[in-house]
């Protein structure tokens, strides 16, 4: 089985949103802006900047409009240390998606300058009801309005599907349920659909079966793999997805975040782990690993702990050993 | 690519040796005996019990004769909590390999009752010289004497090859170098050859290339994958090895140990991660995950920290959440 890999993949850095949203304490706007600036400095070209959701329900995302506006008003330049790694990247080429739950959220995001917005559906009915308080079908109706408004405004649309491998309420989720929601999001006009293993119970076999079902509905170039490392399977799941043709992967610097259904468990797969994996496979990411580890240390320190990723620990250990 | 998995795999628990050997502080004999007893209680059937090496060089393994003798004199019964998971396991069926560097070590191991001994070679010349103070060829001559004595005594022989993907001194290691050493160990009479990614720099592609070379010399049923999780690649590497027909994998409870070449980095892949992976793939291990996590917590607490594995963190989080 000799696999021919793509020359490059794109990492969507979700630390400032999916990561921080699942950290116990909210960070102020200035710290979130600084995190995004550092991530762009390390070479990341897609950095999820926030969520236009209820600050009562998700206090961690309060002030997302200010975060986005500040980042857009003063685009972070590539840092000196990583200029080589991000050569050719100009401010305008960096994308800052934000989550919007509905038309109201979309309008606030548009006012803040959003160029890409993301809607979030689930592949599990119970999760959909508990997470966004409506059925899957109702959420798709709601997103249709967002999609129309986004198209009219020339804003790109990303769609999330959560619980693609398992649901905290329903257990295993059928691949055809995921495929159905992915197809519906594509039909709504989503440019990219991110498949989220929200509770990290997927393994390379179940992720593969899920992807095979989704790929019958949506081509690989429209898909992103979004895997949580709750049970340490995320890197293997990314590798399996790469074998099926996916070239976009979501990850969070320092393995930020956690699992609301298992507080204390690991969060998103660490961006460092993916940069290391792709580097070893000879696939370009444009990300400077050393600058990324610096960023993982910076944000983890800000949160009062050490970076959760294996790669950050190893890189730090090597630095100290020298 | 539909893969047909084996019904069962064997996990060789190396925590009490490879794990503890790379922890900064030595544990007393009684604690090591207790660890082994708990591991057997959780259902592990191959538990590396110690190393008959210089206690000056490796103080963590001092007293290995006493550890082995105590475990053999009073074989741990399966615990009540896990009796179901280990049904059919009788004391005699559990194997306790110990490391021996030379004939003198072998004789001490034999006197302590060893039924399986392991010799350790390297695929990198520089590593061989720095680790065991002789060339690869010289080490094989030394092991020939051990192999002869083991055969004469009816003792099983395991062979380790370290640096199968990378060497801390030489960088990348050629697959044919690994294949050559593996073939030599097989020719000496090793019943099983464990391929060690000592510094964890392997990825699914490089591990696959290495295995393809080794499999031209040694059949899969004689091989074990021994991967360190320094850069978070170990689970993906195990999965890739499974695809190539390997059915024996080394792991350490709680992700014990570390990397002497990067102090602070992660150690062996955690046994919990592999039990979770194989469980998800429908492959039996005979190991009770809850009892294993209890053991990970027990030994990690003994070492003054939390378990390093994602699975232990998630299982503990779920327990607390209930």
Automatic annotation (TrEMBL), chains A, B:
InterPro entries assigned: Aldolase_TIM, HMGL, PYR_CT
Pathway in which this enzyme or protein is active: Metabolic intermediate metabolism; (S)-3-hydroxy-3-methylglutaryl-CoA degradation; acetoacetate from (S)-3-hydroxy-3-methylglutaryl-CoA: step 1/1
EC class of the enzyme, as a word: lyase
Pyruvate carboxyltransferase domain segment(s): 9-293
GO molecular function: hydroxymethylglutaryl-CoA lyase activity; metal ion binding
GO biological process: ketone body biosynthetic process; L-leucine catabolic process
Domain of life the protein comes from: Bacteria
One Pfam family cited in the UniProt record for this chain: HMGL-like
Keywords, in A-Z order: Lyase, Metal-binding
E.C. number(s) listed in UniProt: 4.1.3.4
Family of the protein in this entry: Belongs to the HMG-CoA lyase family.
The name this protein goes by in its record: hydroxymethylglutaryl-CoA lyase
